[in-house]
Amino acid sequence: MPQLDNAAWSKGLSHVLRHRPPPGMRDDGFVLVDEVRVHVHGHPSEAQIACLVARNSKKRFELKEIQGQKWIRAVNGHSFPVQGVLHSMHFAEIPAVAAHGTQRCHLESIFELGLLPGGRKVIAQGLCVLKISPPKTLSKR
Predict the structure, then answer these.
(1) Are 37 and 93 contacting, i.e. CB atoms less than 8 angstroms apart?
(2) Per-residue confidence of the chain (141 residues) as pLDDT tens digits?
(3) Contact status, residue 24 vs residue 32, Cβ threshold 8 Å
(4) What is the DSSP string of 72-102?
(5) Are 55 and 91 in contact (CB under 8 A)?
(6) The pairing of beta strand 61-66 with beta strand 31-32
(7) How far apart are CA 69 and CA 66, in angstroms?
(8) What's the pTM value of the predicted model, to 2 decimals?
């Protein structure tokens, strides 16, 4: 079996679990570890996947044992709906102030058209609160 570093396995696992759901994936995004590992380049073992999940500083994955079988899912960033991962907000729950990080080159379009939906189905929620107002003119640095 070819040896790959954890970063390559993490990227491969993220891609499969977030964007290429293998057969047998449940509505809540969990898939058998044995099923998903064959879709990741290098075919990491169950033990290697468990180690990868435990050491992943960004906590991208969740492992669960159900009836003696190991299941895994990505916890965010899906390009398809997943039950139990996404959190819907009612209009009344939306905070008065929110922050959006972007590159300067996109500001003019955002101020003109607003934030447009992309491919992701979830917005990451953080603890950072900033209040910004659109500048009267945009300067490019």
Answers:
(1) no
(2) 344 567 888 899 999 999 998 889 998 899 999 999 888 888 899 999 999 999 888 888 999 999 999 999 998 878 777 877 645 555 566 677 766 677 888 888 888 877 776 655 544 444 433 344 555 554 444
(3) yes
(4) EEESS--SS--TTT-----GGGS-SS-----
(5) no
(6) unpaired
(7) 5
(8) 0.60
Q: Do residues 66 and 106 touch, judged by C-beta distance below 8 A?
A: no
59 phi-psi bin (left φ>0, alpha ψ -120 to 50, beta other): left
* 8 Å CB contact between 23 and 17: no
Q: Which residue has the tokens 């058209």?
A: 113
Tokens of 84: 């139990």
For the chain, list the domains and their CATH numbers. 6-74 (1.10.10.970)
3-state secondary structure at position 103: coil
H, E, C per residue of 12-79? HHHHHHHHCCCCCCCCCCCEEHHHHHCCCCCCCCHHHHHHHHHHCCCCCEEEEEECCEEEEEECCCCC
Structure tokens at 25: 């994936």
